[in-house]
Amino acid sequence: MYTENKPDQELNQPWRWEEEDLTVTRGSAWSGPGCHNGCGVLLYTDKGGKLVKVEGDTENPFNEGRLCMRCLALPEVVYHEERLKWPLKRVGGKGENKWERISWDEAFDTIETEFNKLKAQYGAETVMFAQGTGRDIGAVIAPLAYSFGSPNYAYLLSGSACYCPRLAASQALLGTFCTADCSQYFTDRYDNPQWQLPEVILNWGNYALASNGDGFFGHWLVDVMKQGSKLIVVDPKLTWLAARAEVWLQIRPGTDSALALGMINVIISEGLYDKEFVEKWCNGFEQLAARAAEYPVKRVSEITWIPEEKILAAARLYATAKPAATQWGLAIDMTKEAIPATHALVALWNITGNMDVPGGMLNCTQPFNTSLWIPPDPTEFMSEEQAAKRLGLAEYPLFQYGFALTQTETTIQAMLTDKPYPIKGAWLQTTNPLSCTSMESDTSTLKALQGVDFCVVVDLFMTPTAVAAADIVLPAATYPEKNSLRGLWYYLQTINKVCEYEEARSDVEINLELCKRFMPERFPFKDGMEWMTYRMKDLGMTFEELRERGPAYPEYQYKKHEKGLARPDGQPGFNTMSGKVELYSKFFESINLDPLPYFEEPTNSPVSTPDLYQQYPLILTTGARYYTSFHSEHRQVERLRALKPDPIVQIHPETATKFGINEGDWVWIENEMGRCKQKAKLTLALDPKVVSADHGWWFPEKEAAAPSYFGTFESNPNIMMPWECGRSGFGSNCKSLLCKIYKVEGEE
Ligand SMILES: Nc1nc2c(c(=O)[nH]1)N[C@H]1C(S)=C(S)[C@@H](COP(=O)(O)OP(=O)(O)OC[C@H]3O[C@@H](n4cnc5c(=O)[nH]c(N)nc54)[C@H](O)[C@@H]3O)O[C@H]1N2
Ligand SMILES: Nc1nc2c(c(=O)[nH]1)N[C@H]1C(S)=C(S)[C@@H](COP(=O)(O)OP(=O)(O)OC[C@H]3O[C@@H](n4cnc5c(=O)[nH]c(N)nc54)[C@H](O)[C@@H]3O)O[C@H]1N2
Ligand code: SF4
Ligand SMILES: [Mo]
Q1: What is the distance between the alpha carbons of residues 88 and 502, in angstroms, rounded to a whole number?
Q2: Could you give the CA distance from residue 274 to residue 349 in angstroms, rounded to a whole number?
Q3: Span 85-111, mean pLDDT?
Q4: Alpha helices in 585-705 (DSSP H)
Q5: 223 forms bridges with which residues in the sheet?
Q6: Half-sphere exposure of 72 (CA within 13 A, CB side)
Q7: What is the C-alpha to C-alpha distance for residues 394 and 651, in angstroms, rounded to an integer?
Q8: Closest ligand (CA of 237)
Q9: Distance (Å) from CA 266 to ligand 2 centroid
């Protein structure tokens, strides 16, 4: 069932109309350029079919007319002269940046021939299909891999440390994924009578105002704050939100799990937990209580650097607030033991009775089972035996949950060593591993990517990765140039094509063409719109009908576990091994992981490597999002770049003075693996022992050819990070390293 738009929300306008001499088209945003959210947009085109401006769609309940600067700057991206205009084939050596224009037909023929050659020699698994964080891509890249016969659908970030750890662990522990309830499932939003205002929002390692990550529109937090929600913020930085919090917990990076366990301990020992919910719906409360008792507040304060009284205040405020929501983010994934950290947070909101209650934790579901970014089951395309060859699945069984991705360390190892089997082909679509996604970018990643026999990159721009590794580069369309679907949680809407740019094609159309070549019987679709109609069969509408209708919301019901709606068998309870919330996880136990949450120090830290800490006396967190760019994108978009022209490392003024650094100086950030340079910004928002560096920088204005690769190794902290994951195969230390800093001298 879908929610009928309420009469007062009946859309006043059709999907397309004329306004003076412009045509207005209603639809959703989404990648590219990259963004997780897919807000409602109005795209304005002129008589010549040129996109002239973008406005927020005030009739879309998701963003209610609001837009960030990146959508506002969209026309500049679409018509940027440096965009890839047509397919290219490499004519020089790898890294020479010499290309020749080819036709789409030649590109497709070459790709088909080369991939099939590799398949004949090594088996289909020898070709890896990798995406970055891009969104509607998930629904079209995995089917491409599978129709070719390869189970190796990849994402080249260490320990898949973005979203995947939280998603996989949540699925195993709860049978679902959860996010804070800001009434986003209801079209009448804050007026909906079923919804309740969260009394407290626990904002944990997530700065949604800038990031709008994973479908959560950051300004909802401001909306609920205006209505009275109080904040507890767990962040090493005094962010805009932290500055407005009831309690700000300035945590030492990488110690989140200890804090969560400490809060659990306070809540249990003070009897502040929800006894009824725990008794009825949770498995292993006693064991959790015993584990949490190992984290008394004094010890947790020592680990996390947070004063004891603040931990106590936060635990009490959170436990007594009804309802309380947790809005969590990337910082949980980017600790090496991200799985137990997730486990601790899941336990925290469950023992306080906030699961699937109004104003608590929403269960996220894909609208109308569209599997729009969660890939299909590979065994629908290939034998179980072939599917089981997915890299890392055997060693890391938790990978059966989440996105059906390969385990990344295992994948990179296979590329470098041919073990367990060689990876000779690569399809890289919406990802720029050398600048952004991958670790050891200048050494092992560069070698791994250049080591394949045939590599295709599909992107909007010529990136450092494309220059280094591609044999063929295909130009992808931005969102106003494509017909596609937006469907990450909450609601489904069409992305509507309004303009074209040179020969760029949408990922949907590119992949469909190849899917048809590899497995024609599975892809009888005339075009991408037909393919999408097939994918949204549960909605019972065609692509064109949904386009007319505008945003479609599935019906949301609270307390599904009470009503038999949380399990496929229709029984009450949760879709987990025990049928309950797994405070103690039988599943983890069955795959030799600790069944209870725990804390482990980051690999390098003042505690785990005191000697190294003498040499590198600062804690380095990386990659906090900012408004003007999405990862390594937007560096060539003048209007946005002007607002942040250089990579920035944030440093406390005391620390800067100690190391002879002034505001605006170029600074080396260095550890035992290497160094990168960024510009110093002095700020009181951080602890003097913590610095925060940008990620994802390259410089489109610099030399493209090797060894420069648009200068991408100059300012990239990922060259200082090893390929290293947690015990489960998930998690990495991207936000908790050690470093030292010093001024860049002279011409360096
Ligand atoms: N140090 C550090 N490193 C990090 C992080 C961090 O916090 N710290 N964050 C990590 C995280 S969470 C993630 S998700 C990864 C992200 O890593 P990636 O997703 O690889 O991000 P980008 O490097 O921006 O690569 C995206 C590329 O896709 C292209 N693109 C955009 N839209 C489209 C489209 O629709 N179609 C096609 N074909 N191409 C498109 C862009 O031009 C760009 O070159 O980075 C990770 N790297
Ligand atoms: N504008 C923009 N938006 C984006 C992206 C982008 O590149 N640009 N990337 C997208 C992607 S792929 C993702 S995954 C999301 C991520 O978005 P978020 O989940 O918001 O993650 P970050 O912005 O990396 O970090 C959030 C906060 O965590 C804090 N932090 C740093 N280290 C720690 C720590 O160890 N513990 C805790 N508790 N906090 C810490 C930082 O100071 C920061 O304020 O954003 C998405 N949205
Ligand atoms: S969150 Fe911002 S960039 Fe993303 S779709 Fe919405 S307005 Fe555009
Ligand atoms: Mo991400």
Answers
A1: 13
A2: 10
A3: 98
A4: 586-590, 610-615, 638-641, 653-658
A5: none
A6: 9
A7: 43
A8: 2
A9: 28
- Which residues touch 147 (CB under 8 Å, ≥6 apart)? 381, 514, 515, 518, 519, 522, 523
Structure tokens at 439: 């670790």
Please say whether the dihedral angle defined by the alpha carbons of residues 616, 619, 621 and 627, taken in this order, is positive or negative. Answer: negative
CA of 34 to the centre of ligand 1 (A): 7
CA of 218 to the centre of ligand 3 (A): 10
Average pLDDT (215-234) is 97
pLDDT, position 137 = 87
Task: Name the closest-CA residue to atom 34, ligand 1.
Answer: 32
**Diameter over CA atoms, the chain:** 70
Probe ligand 3: pick from 28, 31, 39, 631, max atoms within 8 Å of CB? 39
- From the CA of 38, give the closest atom in ligand 3: 5
Ligand 3 centre to CA of 591 (Å) is 39
Cα three-residue angle 200-206-208, rounded to 5 degrees? 85
Q: Please say if the pLDDT value at position 4 is more than 90.
A: no
Ligand nearest to the CA of 459: 1
DSSP structural state of residue 375: P
How far is the centre of ligand 1, averaged over its atoms, from the C-alpha of 431 (Å)? 5
Rounded to an integer, what distance in angstroms lies between the CA atom of residue 154 and that of residue 145?
10
Q: Is the pLDDT of residue 5 over 60?
A: no
CA angle, 376 as apex, 110 and 459 as ends, to 5°? 40
* pLDDT tens track for 631-680: 999 999 999 999 999 999 999 999 999 999 999 999 999 999 999 999 99
pTM of the predicted structure, to 2 decimals: 0.97
d(CA 567, CA 175): 8
Beginning with the edge strand found earlier in the chain, give each strand of the sheet holding 51-56 in spatial order. Answer: 16-19, 22-28, 40-45, 51-56
How many angstroms separate the first and last alpha carbons of the chain?
62
pLDDT tens-place string over residues 722-748:
999 999 999 999 999 999 999 999 867
632 with 436: CB under 8 angstroms? yes
